[in-house]
UniProtKB/TrEMBL annotation:
It comes from the Bacteria. The chain crosses the membrane at residues 37-54, 66-89, 109-133, 140-159. This is IstB-like ATP binding protein. SUPFAM superfamilies: P-loop containing nucleoside triphosphate hydrolases. Keywords: Membrane, Transmembrane, Transmembrane helix.
Length: 350
């Protein structure tokens, strides 16, 4: 089922462009639009100002072209430094995701490069548009039209990608490369294998005490899946327990959502148990299964849990509680093969 199509994109554009954000809040798609308008303006305004300074110099021909090309070139050099700095110079840059060169998980450099090229195209459109305002040249108009055609796909890609991320309802924004906690090599490989998994029914149990990074790791993994245009959802365990009694999985009945936990491809279930320093199970496996397999929606719930890729964010795996064995046993009781269950324990990583 395809939840993001031309109709939903147009609908989101209407929400972002019409109305006041002071009462409806700011979405990721609105932020992206504002960001690109800012890039356009940073090409347009400096070009106008520089043209005003150099237009009366008799020895300088076509000052509007020099101004626009000079501004665009300056932004190209800046973004090249911004992108290549962490790779070549090992220096910090303004991008939070690129400030740390000692990555636990390597950034998706191709995706970052695509983002940089998109920004440069908007800088260029602003500079060229400003030159046309200063003095018309048919060649510059052709260049602007060409850039508009070239930017069509990147604009659609990034706008819809923001829709994938914002409809997942993550509690914060985080790329996997920004996760900087320590993790064992076998667990790192398990995370990467999980991201590369193409099928359904793959389950990951992430154990850890407070501050171990289990929630941020799960959000980072799911965000990467969202950027690959996966239908992901984030939900806390307590909220999910109440949803086990809802019959419908029709997003139309939830006007602010394009998909629900039932029909997403990857589900993050957070705060199942708090972990250290809190001892004991607040949500036990027996209680979870009892509510999951309720009289009204039990068979449907079991089917969705069994067939969906899910990241289970647990508490500390105290050996006396045998949490790992209990939850693996629950998943197998639901009908999930043991080979499709991966466990990561962030306590005691070195």
């Amino acid at each position: 089922m395809k939840f993001i199509n031309a109709k939903t994109v147009i609908g989101q554009l209407k929400k972002d462009l019409i109305g006041k954000d002071s009462y409806r809040g700011v979405t990721l798609t609105y932020t992206w639009l504002a960001n690109q308008f800012g890039h356009f303006s940073l090409g347009f305004i400096p070009t106008i100002l520089i043209y005003a300074l150099i237009k009366d110099r008799p020895a300088l021909h076509y000052p509007e072209l020099w101004a626009s090309l000079g501004v665009w070139s300056a932004w190209i050099l800046f973004e090249l430094y911004n992108f290549l700095g962490p790779l070549l110079l090992k220096t910090s840059t303004r991008r939070e995701a690129l400030k740390n060169t000692d990555y636990t998980f390597s950034p998706a450099w191709a995706n970052v490069a695509f983002d940089t090229i998109t920004d440069l195209a908007y800088f260029g459109m602003g500079a060229i548009a400003a030159s046309l305002v200063c003095s018309y040249h048919s060649q510059m108009l052709l260049a602007l039209i060409s850039l508009l055609i070239v930017i069509a796909y990147p604009a659609y890609y990034w706008y819809t990608t923001k829709m994938y991320i914002q409809n997942a309802e993550y509690p914060f924004q985080l790329r996997l490369s920004q996760w900087s906690q320590k993790i064992k090599d076998e667990h790192k490989k398990a995370v990467l294998d999980y991201l590369d998994h193409k099928g359904e029914g793959k389950h990951m149990l992430i154990f850890g005490s407070r501050g171990s990074g289990k929630t941020t790791l799960s959000v980072g993994i799911a965000t990467e899946a969202s950027i690959k245009n996966g239908y992901c959802s984030y939900i806390t365990a307590v909220k999910l327990l109440s949803m086990f009694f809802e019959r419908t999985d029709n997003p139309a009945e939830s006007p602010n959502k394009l998909w629900t936990w039932r029909n997403c491809g990857l589900l993050v279930i957070d705060d199942i148990n708090p972990g250290k320093p809190v001892k004991g199970d607040i949500i036990s496996t027996s209680l979870f299964y009892e509510l999951l397999n309720n009289v009204d929606c039990g068979p449907d719930n079991l089917k969705h849990i069994r067939e969906k890729n899910i990241i289970w964010v647990m508490g500390s795996d105290d050996p006396t509680n045998l949490l790992e064995e209990k939850w693996q046993g629950l998943l197998q009781q639901i009908g999930i093969k043991k080979s499709n269950i991966v466990t990561i324990n962030l306590d005691g990583e070195n």
